Amino acid sequence: MDTIILKTKNRKETRLIQQLADKMGIENRSLTKEEMEDMGLAMLMRDVEGSEYATREEVMSILDAE
Question: 13 FRET partner, CA 20 to 30 A, in 7, 22, 23, 42?
Fold first, then answer.
């Protein structure tokens, strides 16, 4: 199974993409801002696993990338 994350410009685009995915039988869901931040932190933790620490700049760049 593959996963794709799309960031739409507005709610109308989100609904359109979700409707298309539904018609194609593709599982989909929207993520809250908090869930996106959690995902960014998880990605950062995976990327720096084994290193001594993550800099503040690394943490903030991932959080701002949403």
Answer: 42
Neighbours of 62 (CB within 10 A): 19
pLDDT at residue 51 greater than cutoff 70: no
Q: Is the pLDDT of residue 31 over 80?
A: yes
Contacts of 49 (CB under 8 A, 6+ apart): none
**Could you state, in order of their start, the residue ranges of all structural domains in the chain?**
31-66
Model pTM greater than 0.90?
no
Concatenate the DSSP letters of all residues of 1-66 into one string. --------SSHHHHHHHHHHHHHTT-------HHHHHHHHHHHHHHHTTTSS---HHHHHHHHHT-
